[in-house]
Design goal:
By secondary structure, the protein is mostly helical. It is 38% helix and 6% strand. It has a two-stranded antiparallel ribbon with strand order 1-7.
Length: 541
């Protein structure tokens, strides 16, 4: 059923490379270079398909989502969306989770270092593949070559997008040669311009087939994935074109121009253009919100880019449900749980929890109050009393309180796959990275920022779940992105774009000097700077 990733798994052992040597790797042990790229089929398997091993993972700090202590956690637990309370002897982990929430991560965080290394390892491997495709093309004229080259360039651009978003100034490397001691750093606006150029140039060569549907292009970079990224890049252009994010001066999106389809469009018009292209390609909202996150959700007309999952075919994991549910809650499904991650208090306010006007999506996204198993029976604690989650009792540290095990609303979002393996981490729900509801919200926001009316798009999203009409304002749109995209890994980027990331949250005071915005990017890891004196630390660290 899920053919593409079988090819990827066959290559995975050869792609398992030490973090400490991520810029000096020699992949595919056991295959000579001549064998690995001897014909167009081998070139595809080893130069294109194998790269998708980097999109998902089962290891900490690797993969775009699904694993812990990596991109997703840096984008989620640093915000007012989610918190990992310390629960007695659980979830302190040397202060790591509290440090994320408090923005006290420092320059020596192993998680930040490992995420940096994962991203540059992925970029470096894309460069290597491009070199091999180029060498093959010098003596061959297979019709697939332009598309393969474009796909790898677009994939590299996506990895650079995440790298730039997290770290701001990063090395811009387009070859597999050299080492970590010679990488030269580029300003964030230079990286941004490079990513946009790569995606615009490669999009015409990418397939218009759906990436979220099993088949030849399942899980791959397609034109729709490139368009989504271009819309997201343009929407955040004020952030990404700002070479000094600590001086209090921001460029105006209305004065940042892109060449799109032969026309000069400002950032907001560019966002609208690519969102409209995705609508033209047939993406639409599913009638049922939850169907996007169901078991075997490959038929979704809304999902644009996913990490394919299978409990029997792939090693990609989804750890977020596992680490959120109470032990007995998970056990009631025949799965494992770690009783950890919870919604922050601000989430309850945004959703209207405990009021007569609670947003319908709270029930889709969170477990709260009394909990039931799949047969409708109450889940019980070890003492025989019903398990009840108390959303409003969450705190940074709930140790030695009566709510130590039960504080906080827990992650729901994805349908329970009670046949999942490895405590529930190997499931058949594909992990959703990009979807059309986000496209509508980007379109609405871009219109509002450009002085237009984005109410129709906002209320198309709200109407799907029966939420009442709301006017499209920037405040309402930021709230709506929390309501619609809860647990999907966008909150940090959204708060930064709305200039709210460094404000105080519940239990999180603003750090001294943080008002200048220095924590809106993570530090270049100290070990990386120690290895390469050419790299300059981000301001404030």
């Amino acid at each position: 059923m899920k053919k593409l990733y079988i090819y990827m798994l066959a290559c995975s052992a050869a792609m398992n490379i030490s973090c400490s040597s991520f810029l000096e790797e020699h992949p595919r042990d056991g295959l000579s270079k001549e064998e690995a790229y001897s014909n167009i089929s081998a070139l595809y398997r080893n130069g294109v398909a194998s790269l998708y091993n980097y999109v998902g993972s089962y290891k900490d700090s690797e993969g775009l989502q699904g694993t812990g202590r990596g991109i997703y956690d840096l984008n989620t637990f640093t915000t007012d969306e989610a918190i990992m309370p310390t629960r007695g002897g659980d979830w302190y982990d040397g202060g790591f989770w509290q440090g994320l929430y408090l923005h006290q991560w420092g320059v020596s965080s192993d998680a930040i270092l490992n995420t940096w290394e994962y991203l540059f390892r992925s970029i470096k491997q894309c460069n290597y593949s491009l070199e091999q495709i180029g060498q093959y093309a010098a003596t061959h004229s297979d019709k697939e070559l332009p598309a393969y080259q474009a796909e790898v360039r677009a994939l590299r651009a996506m990895f650079y997008y995440y790298t730039m978003d997290l770290f701001g100034r990063v090395p811009l490397i387009t070859s597999s040669g050299g080492g970590d001691k010679t990488m030269l750093q580029a300003e964030r606006d230079v990286i941004f311009t490079f990513i946009v150029k790569e995606l615009q140039e490669t999009a015409p060569f990418l397939s218009e087939e759906r990436s979220n549907t099993p088949g030849t292009y399942y899980g791959r970079m397609t034109r729709a994935v490139a368009y989504f990224l271009l819309a997201k890049l343009a929407l955040n252009a004020e952030v990404y074109m700002d070479a000094d994010w600590t001086d209090g001066v921001y460029p105006e999106g209305s004065a940042i121009y892109f060449t799109v389809d032969g026309k000069q469009l400002n950032a907001w018009q560019t966002t609208q253009f690519y969102c409209a292209e995705l609508a033209r390609m047939g993406y639409r909202l599913e009638n049922d919100y939850s169907s996007n996150f169901a078991i075997f959700n490959e038929s979704s007309q809304e999902n644009i880019f996913v990490i394919p999952m299978s409990k029997t075919l792939y090693t990609n994991q989804m750890q977020y449900l596992f680490r959120s549910r109470h032990y007995n809650h998970a056990k009631a499904y025949g799965l494992g749980g770690e009783n950890g991650s919870s919604a922050a208090l601000e989430v309850l306010q945004t959703f209207g929890y405990g009021t007569d006007a609670v947003d319908p999506r709270f029930e889709y996204c969170y477990f709260a109050d009394e909990v039931y198993d799949l047969q409708g029976n109450p889940v019980l604690l070890d003492n025989g009393e019903p398990l009840i989650y108390y959303p409003d009792k969450v705190a940074l540290d709930v140790s030695n309180t009566e709510y130590e095990q039960t504080a906080g609303a827990r992650m729901k979002k994805y349908e329970v796959d009670n046949t999942a393996l490895k405590d529930g981490k190997l499931m058949d729900n594909d992990i959703v990275l990009f979807r059309y509801a986000d496209v509508l919200l980007m379109m609405s926001e871009a219109k509002v920022r450009n002085g237009e009316d984005g109410t129709a798009e906002l209320n198309e999203v709200r109407g799907r779940v029966g939420a009442p009409y709301r006017e499209a304002t920037l405040d309402n749109l930021l709230s709506e992105r929390q309501l619609e995209l809860a647990w999907e890994g966008w909150r940090r980027q959204d708060l930064i774009r709305f200039h709210q990331f460094t404000r105080s949250y519940s239990f999180r005071p603003q750090l001294p000097g943080e008002a200048d915005g220095y924590t809106t990017v993570f530090p270049i890891p100290a070990k990386v700077i120690d290895m390469n004196g050419l790299l300059k630390q981000n301001p404030g660290y």
